[in-house]
Amino acid sequence: MEYVEMSDLDQMLAQIRAMPVDSRLEQMDGAVMQGLTRRREQGVARRSLMLAGLLAVGIGWAGSIVPSAPAQAAPAPIGMSDYAPSRLLGQ
Q1: Cα(57)–Cα(34) distance, integer angstroms
Q2: Which residues contact 58 (CB under 8 A, 6 or more apart)?
Q3: Is 11 part of any domain?
Q4: Could you tell me what percent of the chain has a pLDDT over 90?
Q5: What is the pLDDT of residue 1?
Q6: CA dihedral sign of residues 82, 84, 85, 91
Q7: Which regions span the lipid bilayer (predicted)?
Q8: What is the per-residue pLDDT across 43-66, written as a single tens digit (0 to 9) for each?
């Protein structure tokens, strides 16, 4: 490993400081802020989706616990023949 004296390091830093600034750095603020806004919107959408899923699971769970009326067959449709298989079998 090469040994660098402090004066050499100071000279290198001065040279870097004297170099022209890349023009892309001026546009970086806008890109960073757009990225932050996009991530925030994705987080909000993800939380909303999770909340909707939890709400659906909760409603389904509550609906399965609440007793409901027993199932009953619907009345016979109008014009059903007395000779229909279900009538002949006594159903």
Answers
A1: 35
A2: none
A3: no
A4: 41
A5: 53
A6: negative
A7: 48-66
A8: 999 999 999 999 999 999 988 888
HEC states along 2-67?
CCCCHHHHHHHHHHHHHCCCCCHHHHHHHHHHHHHHHHHHHHHHHHHHHHHHHHHHHHHHHHHHCC
Residue in the block written with tokens 């009538």: 87
Q: Which residue has the higher pLDDT, 61 or 89?
A: 61
In a domain, 44, yes or no: yes
**Domain span at 37:** 33-58
Give the C-alpha separation, 82 to 76, whole Å: 11
Selected residue with higher pLDDT from 86 and 26: 26
